[in-house]
């Protein structure tokens, strides 16, 4: 079997945001706290976790809409942490983002073909008949037909699914290698979500694209993701191949997430669970899940556990991973 080449490598990524405290002194929260990951060429890494876990912040940093506070983001062998100007513009041809809200990410006064003309002219140098043909090809590629009608419309004249297909076409216009898909189906009707995921899967296969797929939905993460990374409070809780993680979750937080998935065998009495948000303050100690975890002890309050390989290619950050496996908590 051919060894896949690493396309995206993130080393100890830290992102801080300033907040004002009651004493008017500037303080910081750390929604992403020493996160490391890698994505192979042609691979989908699904990033899952509840709201506020840091998923979108990581995605925005990877496409350099945010500048990292610490750590390194290496894409196709190049460190992109501090690039700017022409180098940043060239990076837009490597990495693109599909946003959660397809309507909010489109210009309401521009026609459909205008949304595609700009990146094709600026980044690919298309013009004239070649430009017109490329717009047609992109619309056909993402299933927006009839092309001659669609290209003259404006975003408000399209359905939610059609708008997301346009957003995908716009991302494809620069011929990227890597796409951050930030919950691309969460704003869509259930009936059309599968079609969008199928399209993205076909593009992965046909174009060799790599994805960071951000989602709350573990069912879609299993379907679309090759591997799943579970994030909570800006920390990595668990990483494994998709099927292995869904079948045999180890971290207590992963088990909690799975219990909220329809059809899961894992059950949780939510009345007994603390729903307090994790501590994101700078300099925090311990595991971010400590206030909700049934296995928590004093060490969990003081020290963040390392990410350790519990099984082959199955990494878990938990001081009591062995107890979690043996006791099958939450079942």
Which features does this protein show?
4-stranded antiparallel beta sheet; 12 helices; 33% helix; alpha/beta; Rossmann fold; 331 residues
The SSE string, one letter per element, is EEEHEEHEHHHHEHEHEEHHHEEH
Query: Alpha-carbon distance between the termini?
Result: 37 Å
Give the overall average pLDDT.
Answer: 90
Structural class of the secondary structure composition? alpha/beta
Q: How would you explain this protein's 3D organization?
A:
This protein is α/β, with parallel strands linked by helices. It has a domain at about 5-95 and about 175-190 and about 205-325: 3-Layer(aba) Sandwich (Rossmann fold), CATH 3.40.50.300. Helices cover about 35% and strands about 25% of the residues. The protein is built from twelve helices and twelve strands. The chain has helices spanning about 55-60, 85-90, 110-125, 130-140, 145-150, 160-170, 190-205, 220-225, 240-245, 250-260, 300, 320-325, and strands at about 5-20, 25-40, 45-50, 70-75, 80, 95-100, 180, 210-215, 225-230, 235-240, 305-310, 315. The protein has an eight-stranded mixed beta sheet with strand order 6-7-8-3-9-10-12-11, with helices on both faces. Strand 11 and strand 12 (about 315) form a beta hairpin. It is globular and about 70 Å long. The model has no long low-confidence stretch (mean pLDDT about 90).
């Amino acid at each position: 079997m051919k060894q896949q080449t690493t396309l995206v490598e993130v080393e100890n990524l830290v992102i801080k945001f300033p907040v004002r405290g009651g004493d008017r002194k500037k303080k910081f929260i750390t929604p992403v706290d020493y996160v490391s990951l890698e994505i192979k060429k042609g691979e989908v890494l699904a990033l899952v976790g509840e709201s506020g876990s840091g998923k979108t912040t990581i995605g925005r940093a990877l496409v350099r809409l945010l500048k990292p506070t610490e750590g390194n983001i290496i894409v196709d062998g190049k460190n992109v942490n501090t690039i700017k100007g022409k180098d940043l513009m060239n990076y837009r041809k490597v990495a693109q983002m599909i946003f959660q809200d397809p309507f909010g990410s489109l210009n309401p006064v521009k026609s459909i073909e205008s949304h595609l003309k700009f990146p094709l002219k600026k980044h690919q140098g298309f013009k004239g008949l070649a430009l017109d043909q490329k717009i047609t090809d992109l619309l056909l590629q993402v299933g927006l037909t009839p092309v001659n009608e669609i290209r003259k419309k404006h975003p408000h004249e399209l359905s939610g699914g059609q708008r997301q297909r346009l957003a995908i076409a716009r991302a494809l216009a620069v011929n990227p290698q890597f796409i951050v898909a930030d919950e691309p189906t969460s704003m869509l009707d259930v009936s059309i979500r599968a079609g969008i995921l199928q399209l993205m899967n076909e593009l992965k296969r046909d174009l060799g694209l790599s994805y960071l797929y951000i989602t709350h939905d573990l069912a879609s993460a299993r379907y679309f993701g090759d591997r799943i990374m579970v994030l909570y409070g800006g920390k990595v809780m668990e990483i494994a191949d998709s099927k292995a993680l869904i079948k045999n979750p180890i971290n207590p937080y992963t088990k909690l997430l799975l219990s909220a998935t329809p059809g899961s065998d894992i059950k949780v009495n939510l009345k007994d669970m603390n729903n307090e948000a994790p501590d994101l303050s700078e300099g925090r100690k311990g595991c971010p899940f400590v206030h909700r975890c049934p296995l928590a002890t004093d060490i969990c309050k003081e020290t963040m556990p390392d990410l350790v390989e519990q099984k082959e290619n199955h990494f878990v950050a938990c001081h009591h991973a062995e107890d979690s496996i043996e006791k099958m908590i939450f079942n």
